[in-house]
Specification:
The protein is built from twelve helices and 32 strands. With about 625 residues, it is α+β, with helices and mostly antiparallel strands. The C terminus is likely disordered.
Length: about 625
């Protein structure tokens, strides 16, 4: 064997793999590290106290984390092991302004805390786990706008494991209203050495004045779920449902389904919320069924919102009836089935937008009992007084089909056009609906009316008026016109005309919405000369579901034809006919303008309305002898 081979053999023996040597070295390294950790922990147990240096260090940490200038009146103690613990008193946080070179600190604190005791396990902090050994805060006071728009005062926030399952609880006031809340905690460790943390699944509740919110919360990989969400106001159910909140690159996506009380309306939001100087809300808001009574001013939902705003919002600061500042909204809303007063209205959709303190729902679209919906709703909230404007049209409303949804047969069948021109101003958002005023127009062309609807005049009158018709026969409807004025929550008739081939009926009266009381006089006028002059009017009064019918004496000296003529307010057909884009072929346009010898809307609208002068006896205008579509 050569010298070179011998050297190679010696080298291979020296580098031969030996597992026992590696294990031995690892054991030695572990022992060394163990001794080092023991020494380090022993040192940590002796580090702490209440020195000014430690107090200033904690103040620096609080200043960095909160963005406020922090001061601690008294540091009772601070330690690092086995728990990282702080016991402090008289903590004050002040707003800072200016530049990094020239920082100005406010004189009065924005947030102050009388006492705070916080302890977290050393190894929990080391491993990034938020688990508390102790958490107690007493007398936290926050000035308006520091945390909430109104002043917030937390009497105490603490971990309670004495009365039932462990929970983090808070008690205090928001403004002058009582608040409290709690969330269940996950408990680990033996008694006396327990740690508390917020689990992936937990229950939570919040009480604000008369509002109560309860839910089961669940952490997900991308966000949070709120299951079995339930909101009550004064112990009355408001809504319930499930919500999923998903974290996005910017903001959150909120999706779910909510059921509103008492009509069980279904709301399904799919919206994106991006916080910032201006809160941005975009996405879609769908409703399979929406009962208008579930969202109107007297609904549990609106009362709960009003209560929350009254507690949360500092209205004196904004000085506005409706405060839309700081909010940018762009939602596509679709109501698949809308119900009002038990009647199914139809499908409605519109883009909802808020920008620059102005709200709009435009363009409105949908199908209302076969009729095409169009128009817009605008709310200007830039000034102290909010201004609401509603312009809407329904073309081709099938009012016969609407009746058949709730009765075996329709009393009047046909198609109509409707116009809504309403405005409102108010210094209080709750008064916007009450202050609505304007015009509601209804115009129907040819249709069919069942003769027994005229039984309000009595069976004898029906037999005399229409001797060739039975109660189940049809009358041909030439035209129906209704012009209503809304003001002070009262609907007043400006025009009410129904024209058939045998009779024309005019109406005059009022409906008081708040009292659900109708006072309406209906006056028939026969077109059949053989029947003679008919002057018996009837008075309908009472709630809509229980109307009473009584005869109403009519001065025979008054010209019936003149009453019909005067019933059509020129402003009505100048606005309504033009607003609905009715052409010259529409039966009602011919009836109102041609048969009554009135000028077209574009001419009449330029004239001043003149008081009607009674015609001398013997020269009374003849009733309209409409033969349209006969």
């Amino acid at each position: 064997m050569s010298e070179e081979d011998k050297e190679t053999q010696k080298l291979s023996k020296k580098t031969k793999f030996s597992p026992m040597k590696i294990i031995s070295r690892l054991i030695k390294l572990t022992l060394v590290l163990g001794v080092f950790v023991f020494i380090m922990l022993t040192v940590l147990t002796r580090i702490g106290g209440s020195s000014p240096i430690l107090r200033e260090a904690v103040e620096d940490i609080l200043t960095e984390k909160t963005g406020y200038s922090a001061t601690i009146g008294k540091l009772n103690y601070m330690k690092f092991y086995p728990d990282i613990a702080l016991d402090m008193e008289q903590i004050e946080l002040r707003r800072m302004s200016g530049t990094p070179e020239m920082i100005e600190i406010a004189d009065a604190p924005s947030i102050s805390v009388e006492k705070a005791k916080i302890a977290l396990g050393f190894f929990d902090v080391l491993m990034g786990r938020s688990r508390f050994r102790q958490f107690e805060i007493e007398s936290l006071a926050a000035a308006p706008q520091a945390i909430t728009p109104k002043a917030l005062y937390i009497t105490k926030a603490f971990i309670d494991d004495q009365d039932g399952p462990a929970a983090l609880k808070i008690e205090g006031r928001l403004g002058d209203k009582e608040i409290s809340g709690q969330t269940s905690l996950d408990v680990k460790g033996k008694p006396g050495a327990q740690s508390y943390g917020v689990g992936d699944e937990r229950t939570a509740s919040l009480h604000i004045d008369t509002l109560d919110v309860r839910t089961n919360m669940k952490n997900t990989l991308s966000g949070l779920e709120l299951n079995n969400l339930e909101i009550k106001n004064a112990d009355k159910p408001v809504l319930n449902g499930d919500i999923k909140i998903k974290k996005k690159t910017k903001g959150w996506n909120v999706k779910g389904t909510l059921s509103l009380e008492p009509g069980k309306s279904s709301i399904s939001p799919d919206i994106n919320i991006v916080p910032g100087p201006e809160l941005s809300v975009t996405g879609r808001l769908n409703s399979a069924v929406l009962n208008v009574e579930d969202i109107d001013a007297s609904s549990p939902l609106q009362k709960a919102i009003d209560k929350l705003l009254s507690v949360w919002e500092d209205k004196e600061q904004s000085g506005k009836a409706v405060n839309l500042s700081g909010l940018k909204l762009d939602l596509e809303a679709t109501l698949e089935k809308t119900i009002a007063q038990g009647f199914e209205i139809g499908r409605i959709s519109a883009p909802l937008k808020i920008e620059g303190d102005q709200f709009s729902a435009a363009p409105l679209s949908g199908n209302i009992s076969g009729g095409k919906l169009s128009g817009r709703v605008d709310l200007d909230a830039r000034e102290k007084t909010a201004k609401l404007k509603i312009h809407a049209q329904i073309k081709g409303l099938d009012y016969g089909a609407l009746q058949k949804r709730y009765a075996e047969q329709a009393q009047i069948e046909g198609h109509a056009d409707m116009l809504f021109e309403l405005t409102s101003t108010a210094n209080d958002a709750a008064r916007l609906a009450d202050n609505l005023k304007g015009t509601i127009g209804f115009i129907s062309g040819e249709g069919h009316m069942r003769s027994n609807i005229l039984n309000i005049w009595g069976q004898g009158l029906l037999n005399n008026l229409l001797p060739s018709f039975g109660t189940e026969d049809d009358l041909k409807l030439n035209c129906a016109v209704m012009d209503l004025e809304l003001e002070d929550r009262n609907l007043t008739t400006k025009a009410l005309l129904v024209d058939t081939q045998r009779v024309t009926v005019s109406g005059d009266g009022q409906y008081k919405i708040d009292q659900d009381r109708l006072d309406l006089k209906l006056t028939p006028k026969s077109k059949d000369v053989s029947i003679g002059d008919l002057s018996t009017a009837v008075h309908l009064s009472g709630p809509l579901k229980d109307l009473s019918v009584t005869p109403s004496a009519l001065d025979i000296g008054k010209k019936i034809g003149g009453l019909l003529l005067g019933a059509v307010n020129p402003a009505f057909y100048a606005i309504t006919f033009v607003g609905l884009n009715l052409d010259d072929q529409h039966p009602c346009k011919a009836f109102v303008i041609e048969k009554e010898n009135l000028p077209p809307p574009e001419d009449k609208a330029q004239e001043e309305t003149k008081d009607e002068q009674p015609a001398p006896e013997g020269e009374q205008a003849q009733p309209p002898q409409s033969t349209l579509n006969e």
